[in-house]
Design goal:
- The structure holds 2 protein chains of 2 kinds.
- By secondary structure, chain A is an alpha/beta fold.
- In chain A, the strands form 3 sheets. A 6-stranded mixed beta sheet of chain A has the order 6-5-4-7-8-11, sandwiched between helices.
- In chain A, strand 4, helix 3 and strand 5 form a beta-alpha-beta unit.
- In chain A, helix 3 packs antiparallel against helix 4 and helix 5 packs parallel to helix 6.
- The two termini of chain A are 22 Å apart.
- Classes of the chains: A alpha/beta, B alpha/beta.
- Strand 9 of chain A pairs parallel with strand 2 of chain B.
């Protein structure tokens, strides 16, 4: 799926979350729990039953009081990667689904290397396929196989898919949502679902350049690949300008929502070099470190 | 609304068809290309706002534009007539007076004819849409045509030039322009039911008589003019070698004029005279031109601010004056010999009848009671000829007769009174008209032979009587064409003609007529008719003048005064063409009262084009709008 050099570069990266990790297992992310760790957190008086190894004996000698030293515990990061496999993602040259697969693979690889738990789900008008939690470097193969086996089809209903996925209790973690966000129901419902479960979210909007600047004849009937509906109209410069404005407004609205809730957001153009996208753009956007 | 290009039915059909065709074309437009895209979500958002508003609107605007273009073109093809826009269609006849006086210059330098053409142009342009025009001229310069469109009529106006001749208003259109029989111009059959109006644009100098319905537009402006109104060349009585010329100069302006007269010819310095001619008066003088030798003679007058050129020059031709070698064939006639001795320019030699035929020896001959058996080679005077095969037939002898009437203007009898000539005995010859009349009245076979004989003789020697007796007998005859012969039907000793004081003059005239080159014909400016078949006409500078041959005569158009030479086989004749018309020289006498100028040109907004032109322009403008809007996607 990736070249060796690219994988070696990915080994140096870590997923960034703006929240403390809520993982139950030890990992590389700071958590809210206090316990064994390397980073000093606070002092507190000794109480019965505390581990005497955490007593600060220097303070006892000076103050004649038993004071415990507490450290932040480091936990793993539950990572939920959602890949949109609707028909709109799998249309034409430079398929957005291919791009989404690669992004998901790269991020999952980074997570697995950092001992984070990785959950993968493919959705369209519902949950299409899911990969149960994987942890550890040795799971890379199964993750890549899962992604390679994804095929496109169906309409886009993000909110339905997310609501169904999170209907089961899930540890709070990092949600990576990879989609073109061409959902007739709108993206707001999906965002509301994610907010409800208080996950840290990174939104990756995959865009085909043909959607940004469509090249159409003067008169055309456009057929929606998902819905099958036909729309006839005459393409005028004014209409093209209006389209570009509307598309930009659509993307800006998604980005605006993400920024408002403190989420990460990035655009991935399918014709852009993928390695640049991951190694430079995602790092610049603060998705990777 | 009327349609001039089509009948009403087909016109409306064309308009409706154009509209329906455009609508059908819009409804039956080919299907656009189908393209499958990932999602039309964004497009639908865009179109939700725009399609319902602008797409439908664009379609309708586009359809309306196309409909407007098609209907404008269809209407233009039908050439509608809208009275409120461009007046009523009429058939307009405009007659331009292009008689010579119209060439007079006005104070601003333009001519009356130029002003007339301008005024006629206003009349044509002021007519309503769909009007038709017939342009005519009083000198019949323009060919006979029917009613024509405006553009052609305007172009035809510009081709009119001033011509000399007899002006006349042609019959035109469905109604005669002035009282006459059938129309000369125009075609009544192809005319729609348009009202007919007739204009005459003139200076009023030419004697034209327009009908009461004709609207007269005057372009008359007073102009000074001095011109030659008479120029007459003649030999002095008794001495044909000397000539004098009579010149009459007319001042057509009310103010007196100082006129410089210059007479020029061959072989002598020009003669110059300064005349002071009172206003509206003439001055004449006689000049001896014996100093000039044979050739053209030109008189010219020059006065200050002269507005009319055609009458400023006049031409004549001075004939040759060499000695004449005359053969006299006579049994003896003292009176005749004595009279011939008075002719100083004639060398008389009495010879036998046979020697007259010696080639190149004599210029003319007189046969006194002697008749050659064959026609002589030189012209001659036959006195009491006997019967001869080459001569015309003789009639019965008449006795005790006298000259009752004669043609005093004939060159033979110029200055020769015959009132007292008494004749004891004469045997007249038949003239050519008498011979033909006899043939017409003959019915018997024997008479037919005689008639043929008479006819042949008449063609060989076509005689005309210049002096007749009481019973219409031809006493003195002369040939009409070909070699010249004069005939006295009586012997001198059988009359007292030789004793008359005019007898030497008769002999001088006869010798002069027999031997001299024919005097130059004098003709008026305009169409000149020469009784010559296939003649080539040269002007004064030797250029060939275009001619037309009509039934044995040659016609040519003399537009300016000059001396022309006509050559036909072995015949040569000179034609002096001059204006010499005091009625034309009087360019300040306007006889016609102009019509009210306000109503002259007819009602129409100046500069308003025809409706079909406006429709065509509108279609072009709409096409430009359609092109502009289409390329900016404002229309579909």
């Amino acid at each position: 799926m990736f070249s060796d050099s690219f994988l070696r570069q990915l080994q140096l990266l870590t997923l960034v979350t703006r929240d403390r990790a809520h993982g139950q297992l030890r990992g590389a992310h700071r958590s809210r729990r206090v316990g064994t760790g390397m980073v000093f957190a606070d002092y507190r008086p000794y109480s019965e039953g505390d581990n005497v190894r955490h007593v600060d004996w220097g303070i006892y000698l000076r103050l004649d009081r038993l004071i415990l030293r507490m450290f932040e515990e480091e936990a793993d990061l539950p990572t939920y990667i959602f890949v949109d496999v609707s028909q709109s993602m799998d249309h034409g040259r430079n398929s957005k689904l291919d791009c989404a697969r690669q992004i998901a693979g790269a991020l999952a690889y980074v997570a697995l290397l950092n001992h984070d738990r990785v959950n993968l789900a493919a959705f369209a008008d519902g949950l299409r396929e899911m990969l149960p939690t994987r942890r550890g470097r040795h799971q890379t193969g199964s993750v890549f196989s899962f992604l390679a086996g994804l095929s496109g089809g169906g309409r886009t209903r993000m909110d339905t898919a997310l609501r169904r996925y999170f209907s089961v209790p899930r540890t709070r973690g990092l949600v990576v949502l990879i989609s073109d966000f061409l959902d007739p129901a709108g993206f707001e419902q999906a965002i509301a679902v994610l907010r409800r479960f208080r996950h840290d979210v990174v939104v990756l909007q995959v865009i085909n350049p043909a959607e940004l600047d469509p090249q159409l004849p003067e008169e055309v009937v456009l057929v929606d690949a998902e819905e099958g509906t036909a729309t006839e109209f005459e393409v005028t410069p004014a209409l093209l300008t209006a389209y570009r404005d509307t598309f930009e407004q659509h993307a800006s609205a998604i980005e605006g929502s993400c920024r408002r809730f403190g989420w990460g957001y990035a655009r991935a153009l399918t014709d852009a070099p993928f390695e640049d996208l991951v190694l430079r753009s995602f790092r610049e956007q603060g998705l990777l470190r | 609304m009327k349609f001039l290009g089509l009948a009403a039915g087909p016109a409306w059909l064309l308009i409706a068809g154009s509209g329906i065709a455009v609508v059908l074309l819009y409804l039956l437009k080919p299907s656009p290309r189908r393209l499958v895209v990932a999602s039309t979500l964004i497009w639908q958002r865009v179109l939700r706002e725009r399609k319902h508003k602008s797409e439908k609107l664009r379609w309708w605007i586009s359809l309306l534009l196309a409909l407007s273009i098609a209907l404008a073109l269809a209407f233009a093809l039908t050439r509608p007539e809208i009275a409120a826009v461009s007046g009523t269609a009429e058939d307009r006849v405009v007659v331009i007076d292009n008689s010579p006086s119209m060439a007079a210059r006005n104070s601003d330098g333009s001519t009356r004819l130029k002003n007339a053409i301008d005024r006629a142009g206003e009349i044509v342009r002021a007519a309503g849409a769909g009007s038709r025009f017939l342009i005519a001229d009083t000198m019949r310069q323009l060919p006979a045509t029917g009613f024509e469109p405006r553009a052609i009529a305007l172009a035809r106006l510009q081709s009119i030039e001033s011509r000399a001749g007899t002006p006349r208003i042609p019959e035109a259109g469905r109604a005669p322009v002035h009282d006459g029989t059938a129309p000369e111009l125009g075609n009544a059959a192809d005319s729609p039911a348009n009202p007919l109006r007739v204009w005459l644009v003139t200076d009023g100098v030419a004697p034209l008589q327009p009908s009461a319905e004709t609207q007269v537009i005057s372009v008359f402006q007073p102009a000074p003019n001095v011109g030659i109104t008479a120029f007459d060349l003649r030999a002095l009585p008794g001495d044909p070698r000397r000539h004098e010329v009579f010149i009459e100069v007319t001042n057509a302006a009310p103010a007196p004029a100082q006129v410089e007269l210059l007479l020029s010819g061959m072989g002598n310095t020009p003669v110059s005279r300064v005349l002071r001619v009172a206003g509206n008066a003439t001055s004449s003088l006689v000049l001896d031109i014996s100093g000039f030798s044979e050739g053209p003679l030109r008189a010219a007058v020059r006065a200050e601010a002269d507005a009319f050129d055609l009458d400023d020059t006049a031409y004549a031709y001075l004939p040759a004056r060499s000695r004449v070698r005359l053969a006299l064939v006579t049994p003896g006639n003292k009176d005749l010999a004595r009279a011939l001795r008075l002719l100083r320019h004639v060398d008389v030699e009495r010879v036998s009848i046979a020697r007259v035929r010696e080639p190149g020896r004599f210029d003319a001959a007189i046969f006194d009671r002697e008749t050659p058996s064959q026609a002589p080679r030189v012209p001659g005077l036959l006195i009491a000829p006997a019967r001869a095969p080459w001569l015309a037939l003789r009639t019965d002898e008449v006795t005790d007769t006298r000259v009752e009437r004669w043609e005093a203007t004939h060159p033979l009898l110029s200055g020769v009174p015959l009132r007292d000539v008494l004749i004891d005995r004469a045997t007249p010859l038949r003239t050519s008209d008498e011979s033909i009349a006899q043939v017409d009245t003959t019915t018997g076979r024997a008479d037919i032979r005689t008639g043929l004989e008479v006819g042949n003789m008449a063609s060989a020697m076509a005689l005309t009587a210049v002096a007749r007796g009481p019973d219409n007998e031809a006493l003195i005859l002369a040939t009409q064409g070909g070699r010249r012969f004069a005939v006295l039907s009586f012997a001198l000793d059988a009359s007292n003609f030789a004793l008359q004081p005019g007898f030497p003059g008769f002999l001088a005239n006869t010798v002069d007529w027999l031997t001299r080159e024919p005097r130059a014909q004098t003709q008026q400016l305009g169409l000149v008719r020469l009784p010559l078949s296939g003649a080539r006409v040269l002007d004064f500078d030797g250029r060939v003048v275009p001619t037309t041959e009509v039934s044995g005569a040659t016609l040519f158009d003399a537009t300016r005064p000059g001396l022309y030479t006509a050559v036909a086989r072995d015949q040569r004749s000179r034609i002096a063409v001059n204006l010499l018309d005091s009625r034309v020289t009087a360019i300040n006498v306007s006889r016609l009262k102009p019509t009210d100028p306000a109503a002259a040109t007819g009602a129409r907004t100046p500069g308003m084009p025809d409706p079909w032109t406006m429709l065509l322009l509108a279609a072009v403008a709409l096409l430009a709008v359609e092109w502009w809007t289409y390329h900016r996607r404002l229309t579909v």
